[in-house]
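hey
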């Protein structure tokens, strides 16, 4: 039996100073400098090649310039989880790890798994996500400084920490104002935030965070929404053994936004509160029940955006 030919997907290993690019089925790996000239050369080469899909790993922001440039040119593109690619490489028997090998594995991963391409994001959507990332960074820094203040006894050091705490609080307030201005100026974002904020437990800040982290909201079915957020239960069964269902993967930022909203919703949202209590009465642990409520809340929010209808009890 002849093995099927894999599509010529392109894999890109993203580094700070260069991009290593491989085509599935080819041994050669090309390297492009990560600057304007290198970007022009890479996009011109891809335009000539016309691959069905370009895959690259999420690298904490280093991939942003390349993603935006390729999406602006209409290239089908998928940003994949590095852990998934690494697990795929191990399954293929590739234990070594270099930039060139990574590019080849990303290309083969894209060809074999054929993931759905990411939806292109508009300028305001990209700005919203950038501000949300910056907001989380400021919150993390504020938390660290507060923790340090709790264990510091020297008066001068405490004053320094208190100044830092004041700075980050002001920074968060300023970021929130910038996010509010950005969403107010965009009719689509403004409408979606207004709709999401009608759900008890979801405020404007949470709504903006969800739209930043999950721009596909409103275009998904129930299973897709849960999977993208990493809230879909994963089976762990083998033979006669039945393991616990667990969640994993997905977008951590979505889960973070949903977690706090769901905590509030279990108290003030009649639908979520009832679902939470029913799960507890069935003997489910609190965290399991809360995770199920996060999934239910996300499905509700997805339906609200999809149908363009405010919350009704």
């Amino acid at each position: 039996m002849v093995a099927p030919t894999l599509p010529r997907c392109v894999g890109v290993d993203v580094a700070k100073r260069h991009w290593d690019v491989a085509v599935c089925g080819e041994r050669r790996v090309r390297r492009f400098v990560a600057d304007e000239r290198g970007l022009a050369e890479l996009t011109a080469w891809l335009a000539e090649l016309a691959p069905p899909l370009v895959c690259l790993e999420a690298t904490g922001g280093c991939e942003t310039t390349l993603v935006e440039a390729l999406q602006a040119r209409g290239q089908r593109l998928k940003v994949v989880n590095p852990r998934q690619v690494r697990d795929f490489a191990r399954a293929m028997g590739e234990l070594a790890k270099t930039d060139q090998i990574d590019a080849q594995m990303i290309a083969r991963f894209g060809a074999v798994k054929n993931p759905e391409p990411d939806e292109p994001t508009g300028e305001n959507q990209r700005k919203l996500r950038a501000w949300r990332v910056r907001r989380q960074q400021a919150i993390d820094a504020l938390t660290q400084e507060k923790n340090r203040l709790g264990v510091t006894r020297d008066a001068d050091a405490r004053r320094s920490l208190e100044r830092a705490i004041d700075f980050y609080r002001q920074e968060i307030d300023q970021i929130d104002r910038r996010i509010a201005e950005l969403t107010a100026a965009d009719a689509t974002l403004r409408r979606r935030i207004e709709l999401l904020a009608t759900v008890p437990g979801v405020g404007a800040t949470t709504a903006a965070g969800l739209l930043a982290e999950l721009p596909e909201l409103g275009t998904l079915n129930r299973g897709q929404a849960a999977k993208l957020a990493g809230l879909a239960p994963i089976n762990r069964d083998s033979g006669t053994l039945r393991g616990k269902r667990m969640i994993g993967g997905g977008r951590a930022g979505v889960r973070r936004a949903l977690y706090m909203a769901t905590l509030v919703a279990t108290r003030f949202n009649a639908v979520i509160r009832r679902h939470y209590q029913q799960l507890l009465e069935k003997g489910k642990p609190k965290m399991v029940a809360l995770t199920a409520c996060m999934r239910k809340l996300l499905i509700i929010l997805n339906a609200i955006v999809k149908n363009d209808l405010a919350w009704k009890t």
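The mean pLDDT is 86. The chain is about 60% helix and 10% strand.
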